[in-house]
Amino acid sequence: MLSKIFTASLLGMEADMVTVEIDLQPGLPAMNMVGLADTTIKEAKERIRAAILNSGFEFPKRRITVNLSPAGRPKEGSHFDLPIAVGILLLGSQCVPVRTDTALIGELSLDGKVKHIRGALPLAIGLRERGIRKLLLPYKNLEEVALLEDIDLYPVKDLQESMDYYLGLRPASPYNRKKKGTFSQANPSDDFCDVVGQECVKRAVTVAAAGNHGLLLMGSPGSGKTMIAKRIPQIMPEMSYAEQLETTRIHSAAGLLSENCPYIKERPFRMPHHTISRAALIGGGSKPRPGEISLAHNGILFLDEFGEFDHRVTELLRQPLEDGKVAISRARGTIAFPCSIMLVAAANPCKCGYLGDERHVCTCTEKQLNQYQSKFSGPVLERIDLHIKVSAVLDPNLKKKEGALSSYEMKKQVQKAAALQAQRYKGTGVRFNSQLGEQQIYKYCPMTAAGRKLLTDAYQKLALSMRTYYKIIKVARTIADLHGTHTIDEYHIAEALQYRALDDFYRRPDNGH
């Protein structure tokens, strides 16, 4: 006697359809699993046996063979418990139905309850892409998978309920999706109106957020770099449905979703410590998991004390910042994690922190200065669009001036520019100006003759690279969007150029040291 149940296996963020085939034959009682199952699945034998008996069912006292097809692909995860258990119980029914449009995922406890699993959303996406239209899943994974709008969800609490739904013994209607509140990572008490005396920096932050441009904040200790960076999430544009789905998918695969945060509807803000390892930042491991750079996908990766990070770690940012994805190769294949991020880095200009400061004298020796600045890789800095000097506020009693920007006012500007970009790039796969390729730059970034001449002169006099040249154009495109103009003019280019003023300042021998 044979039964077949459909489920999926997760590798990275991609899910493959798996057919659970269960055969029952005369012989000594035994349960064997084949099909490259990992330890978690092989250990499920005792969980499944106890769950079936404690749910009031009879466990077959015969030889059971469980085949996970296709047999040549590795499989892992506790979500195989439920489909295997249902498949075994189906062998005791008069007819064994094969529902080609239905799949099951879920871990079982010893008393037959269906428990929360990791990676429910990417599993559901993979099943949907392969024709599955009905999914039985744990209640605690319901909210994250409910982001999918074209698959019927049937939450189950235990093994008995799963059998009743599968056999049609209980009238079932799919879960009715309702609008839920948004989980917020931002602190509502943090507002840019608290940042006084830094209006030029706030303007640069507005440009960065509007076009999703990378941002380097360089300044002496206490100048407000971290304070500014932590407020950036409040002014970021709203996430589209596709961005919400993709971001939640990554966090689900990493096992970071919870009942309090079942899905991601606000742009992530990740702030790893400077002692982070390479695998934790980029991703990896024997069973590859997304790193901090992928967990920040569609959001912000904030590297505070950038100069204290191991240079071997920061060097790994080169290709991901350029490609928007991380490819991790292992013996079983290559796994890609998306990482389209807004990189925000904050750093002191030197070891003591006061190089170029108007009120303090730098005490670093030439050796210390060279050693510290060697941590700032030219290729990495070149991939950060805006380089901003943050000067210390000279007046401690400075109050908010009339016309100073608040988070609300900055976000209004950002949303306006983001709406223009969404309309301009509709159907191209591009969301922000920072994502434009070279050919798209020529198409979507028309310049006036004066603007082109200024950029050409700057390219020659400042010895800019072609990468920097294109980045200046993309930043100028964002500035023009903030002004509501279609053509990039001379003053847009001029403002974009001033955001690259730190490219060489901290490496010159005559910079005041």
TrEMBL record:
InterPro entries: AAA+_ATPase, CHLI-like, MCM_dom, Mg_chelat-rel, Mg_chelat-rel_C, Mg_chelatse_chII-like_cat_dom, P-loop_NTPase, Ribosomal_Su5_D2-typ_SF. The keyword Metal-binding does not apply. Gene3D superfamilies: 3.30.230.10, P-loop containing nucleotide triphosphate hydrolases. Keywords: ATP-binding, Nucleotide-binding. Signal peptide: none annotated. Residues 211-394 form the AAA+ ATPase domain. GO terms for molecular function: ATP binding; DNA binding. Belongs to the Mg-chelatase subunits D/I family. ComM subfamily. PANTHER family: COMPETENCE PROTEIN COMM, MAGNESIUM-CHELATASE SUBUNIT CHLI. NCBIfam families: YifB family Mg chelatase-like AAA ATPase. This is YifB family Mg chelatase-like AAA ATPase. It comes from Hominibacterium faecale. The lineage of its organism: Bacteria, Bacillati, Bacillota, Clostridia, Peptostreptococcales.
